[in-house]
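User: Some background: our group keeps a shared notebook of sequences we're curious about, and every so often someone picks one and asks for a predicted structure to add to the entry. Today it's my turn. The entry only has the sequence so far, pasted here. Could you supply the structure so I can complete it?
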Amino acid sequence: MSKLLILYTGGTIGMAPTPAGLAPLPGYLPAQLQRLARDGVSWDVVEYPQLIDSSAITLADWQKLVADLAAAYDRYDGFVVIHGTDTMAYTASVLAFALENLAKPVIVTGSQLPLGHPRSDGWGNLADAIEAACQPDLHEVAIAFNRLLLRGCRARKVDAASFAGFDSPNAAPLARFGIQAAWDKAQWRRGSGAFRAVAPQPARIRSGLLLPGSMAAEFGQWLAADTPQAAILLSYGNGNAPADAALLDGVRQASARGCVVVNLTQCVHGAVEVGAYAASQPLAQAGAVAGADMTPEAANAKLLYLLAQGLDVAAVRAAVARDLRGELSVH
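Assistant: Of course. Here's the predicted structure to add to the notebook entry:
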């Protein structure tokens, strides 16, 4: 018998039409979940008092979610977090890092259409999430969506116009749901050590998307003038950027002041590989850390996790480049 805790935070899945458009309807989704009842599984449902559209997610919401999961950890066999799709990959990544030495499944899900819609994808997503949350060997945060189970810190929202809303571009799914569930257990991570929760704390993390033209210089000037704790730079291809003096000087100055500058690629598939092209080397020489094939969502969550622990800058930089939760490919 599996006992699950289902945390309902909001999102399209439990919305209903209002004069202003779709909006969360308190009490609706917990009642609907009874349609998915089956032998061998029981659950408790906690509906958050303030159901939110996930585009409004805040650090405080993540802190509450981490605290609630940690407080209930010993009492349940698995967990389902019902969430809006817009920032689902961000939340799944935050949970993947915050829940350290996880030894139970935490499955995040939602839908593109509300449960009340005649073609809603929510029913299948919920059923798959509950199925995954009953797997005792799954020691991961994962997203169940459109008949796929994706590692949470690998997933991205890739489509707002179809049911195939999520993918993990640089990692295979953990499972595929057909008439039978096909579990790819060879990929599953195993918890080791004592579970603990490391809630994200306020941190100055900024990001910049390189655009052809003056953007490189402006990003460097901004880094030099207003240095944050960490910065995510979305560069081209395999981590390439123009050898712009202002960009490189800004990265150099910010790094010297303790800013952790992470170089990610704008490409959906592929990775930052220092040395693959000459154009990728100046950023690394200026102090930027290559983020390999991490998603921006995972990089943000990883930085929040590392900065919350009071590590020195060298330790944070080293950890950014190291695989901690399956968030990057090790070659």
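Suggested note for the entry: The longest strand covers residues 41-52. The mean pLDDT is 95.
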